[in-house]
TrEMBL record:
Its main location: membrane. This is Cytochrome c oxidase assembly protein. It comes from Actinocorallia aurantiaca. Pfam families: Caa3_CtaG. It is found in: Cell membrane. It is a multi-pass membrane protein. The chain crosses the membrane at residues 13-33, 45-66, 78-99, 119-141, 153-174, 186-208, 228-250. InterPro entries: Caa3_assmbl_CtaG-rel (IPR019108). Keywords: Cell membrane, Membrane, Transmembrane, Transmembrane helix.
Amino acid sequence: MGLAHQAPVQAGLAPWLAAFAMTGVVVAYLAATARLRRRGDAWPWLRDLSFAAGGAAVATAAVAPLPGEPFTAHMLQHLILGMAGPLLLVLARPVTLLLRILQPGRTRRTLLAVVQSRLAAVLVFPPVAALIDFGGLWMMYRTPLLSAVHDQPWAHALLHLRVFAAGMLFTTALCRLDPMRHRYSLALRAGTLVVASAAHSVLAKSLWAAPPPGLTFTAADLHAGAQLMYYGGDLVEVGLALVIVLDWYAEGGRTLRRERRRMDAVPSRV
């Protein structure tokens, strides 16, 4: 069985609900930034653009026919939902925006408590987030799971939701842009990215050799999809690495400024 008959999967209500939900989230984000600017607070326009682009990509991937043969189109959907879309969304710092727009009170305290809870700290511990994300991909592509949900629209939609949520978690853990309970080190985040990238590359190479169990594709389609996973994943991972490097550079600058202020505060001796 292949993925040639994609209509049962795409024709369900679930993908459209997901697309409408994502569109609503983008509209809410842009409304919040507009409100922030009206009251005189600064918020970079590039974040609006990043969030809108990420939301549009995710919504489109949920419902629109994507180019390529069945496996290639599926892999493009995977890259958008699990990697490129989450990176664009996380770069826009949505949690930071929500904390800034909310008035002091119970709702804001609850959100901050959730973000900085022990559970959140465990989930965004980079190795844990990587295991949830890439371990799930290995389970999806190297077990009969994908074949089992192929003709079940709601189950297939839940699988895509899981890919998106795991991608958001992994991207959040590595980028470290929104407030967190722990500020995990550069070395830990960079090391996790290297290991996760290797796991993703090995999975892509395994798909070049053999399709997911229970599914069949033409050799050309299988190879094109595996190549897209390999090189497309590399491209997004370069983006993640750039975010980590820029964070390291900014942290070094902050440390240098603190050191200069400390030295300036020390009275000179004649």
